[in-house]
Specification:
Blueprint: H1 9-22, H2 28-40, H3 57-71, H4 76-80, E1 82-85, E2 88-91, H5 101-132, H6 142-158, E3 161-166, H7 172-180, E4 184-190, H8 193-205, E5 212-216, E6 232-237, E7 242-243, H9 252-257, E8 264-265, H10 270-282, E9 283-292, H11 298-307, E10 310-317, E11 323-330
Parallel strand pairs: 3-4, 3-6, 4-5, 6-9, 7-8
Antiparallel strand pairs: 1-2, 9-11, 10-11
Length: about 325
């Protein structure tokens, strides 16, 4: 990118895309667009309406610096400082893992189960009402019906759904659940004080700080279950699950930039085993435990859940057909 040339958006995109391709950077064009939009303080799609926009020398220098960081392996999300998850914006840096699309499936599984349980309850109640009050409703006035409906809505809103997120990181799971489930009250824990700082900021950014309590805690400690005053209906975790021996096989940008404490354990199963034991104590009857899984973990995690007395074990596949989500119910 020579200094003596007057650059515009389209010429910069073409040149930097070729640069990233030469450096064997994945998604070269997308990378160029995201970084240029960040340098110009524009939305990515706005670039397409401004292909002939001149780029100033100061903007060019800023963009060059971003491109150098990416060429050295730093993830785009850390360079721009944010990532989208479940339709919400999250601030991210090297203190936390970058949220992945696979983890969105964890949130989707919980929302699906909550909706199914609510529908099942409503269906059962409706059947009961039809049997017991077959003729009574016809005698109610319109005003009485509206008052009854309002009371039911108030009662439903007042009934909190207690949920625990273990290893919250950026807070993407807890915050997304709080956004989607108005009745949920979250406790989100992490061993990293730095991660909790990022998560708390993200809760504020997404206007759910009042419904998430962030706590520093080590899920592998023997006394982890102490201090929780109420049973949970939901426990969810995307724990460290990559065996340390696999580090050499992973993308360099992951190993070199993302926090190892959130990625690796000795065997990959320590957190699954400990959280399953603790969840058997912390969950209310009928509550569910949800895990994100390592690509090869499903058979063993299924055995762990069964050994700890869980029922209704469900395994869900990700976009590549890999068993990625496990959930089970405390009977």
């Amino acid at each position: 990118m020579p200094d003596d040339k007057q650059w515009d958006v389209i010429s910069l995109l073409k040149t930097s895309t070729a640069f990233f391709e030469d450096k064997q950077i994945d998604d070269a064009r997308l990378t160029a667009e995201l970084l240029l939009a960040h340098a110009l303080r524009m939305k990515r799609m706005e670039l397409y309406l401004a292909f002939d926009r001149p780029v100033s020398q100061k903007e060019l220098e800023s963009y060059r610096a971003l491109c150098r960081r990416r060429a050295e392996g730093e993830p785009v999300q850390y360079i721009t400082g944010e990532e989208e998850f479940f339709g919400y914006k999250f601030s991210v840096d090297r203190r936390v893992l970058i949220p992945r699309p696979e983890t969105e499936l964890l949130v989707e599984a919980i929302l699906s189960d909550v909706a199914a349980k609510k529908t099942l309850k409503a269906t059962a109640e409706n059947k009961s009402d039809l049997i017991e009050n077959d003729d009574a409703e016809s005698n109610l006035t319109e005003r009485e019906l509206k008052e009854s409906e309002a009371q039911e809505n108030d009662a439903e809103a007042a009934s909190e759904l207690m949920a625990l997120d273990i290893g919250t990181g950026s807070g993407c799971i807890a915050i997304s659940l709080a956004k989607k489930l108005p009745q949920v009250k979250m406790i989100a824990v992490d061993i990293s004080e730095d991660a909790l700082t990022v998560a708390a900021a993200n809760a504020g950014r997404n206007s759910v700080s009042d419904r998430i309590e962030f706590r520093r805690s080590d899920a592998l400690k023997s006394d982890f279950t102490k201090g929780f005053l109420h049973p949970f209906q939901i426990i969810v975790s995307n724990p460290p699950y990559i065996p340390q021996a696999e580090a050499g096989e992973m993308q360099k940008e992951v190993v070199n930039f993302e926090p190892h404490a959130a990625l690796f354990t000795a065997t990959g199963f320590e957190f699954y085993e400990k959280i399953a034991r603790d969840a058997a104590l912390l969950l209310a009857s009928g509550g569910r435990l949800y895990f994100e899984l390592h690509a090869d973990a499903a058979p063993r995690v299924e055995k762990i859940l069964d050994a700890n007395g869980f029922a209704g074990i469900t395994l869900r596949k990700d976009f590549s057909g890999i068993l990625r989500i496990a959930s089970a119910e405390k009977s």
